[in-house]
Design a protein that fits this description.
Blueprint: H1 2-86, H2 97-117
Helix pairs in contact: 1-2
Length: 121
């Protein structure tokens, strides 16, 4: 009877150990799986943040380029009108070809400088 009790105790002990090991393996698997999912989500979030940041920088570059070009055009227009005024003519007058060619060339160079300063990515 003592031997049978000992066998039962060993049997129950083995079952308990097997259950504990099984639970440990299951918890390890679950938490390892959760860690991989969390890592994957974190990597996705970082990629999304990078994309958003790149788009923000790109749109900021585009905005600055457009502002620069508008400023160049405005300066060119003001210069044109000053040439008109210096000849006692009204604003947006007809200037001699050499003057408007020079004005167009200056405006073109100013636009090109804006594009160089704020390139499209």
């Amino acid at each position: 009877m003592a031997k049978r009790k000992l066998n039962n105790n060993l049997y129950y002990t083995a079952i308990i150990i097997a259950l504990i090991l099984g639970m440990a393996i299951a918890f390890y698997g679950y938490f390892n799986y959760r860690a991989k999912i969390d890592l994957f989500k974190l990597q996705e979030e970082k990629e999304q943040e990078k994309i958003i940041q790149e788009e923000t920088v790109k749109s900021e570059q585009e905005r600055k380029r457009e502002e620069c070009i508008l400023e160049a055009m405005s300066k060119s227009h003001d210069s044109w009108n000053k040439q008109c005024e210096s000849r006692s003519l009204e604003r947006d007058c007809q200037l001699p070809q050499t003057l408007w060619e020079r004005s167009d060339e200056k405006q073109k160079i100013a636009k090109e400088n804006c594009i160089k300063m704020y390139p499209a990515n």
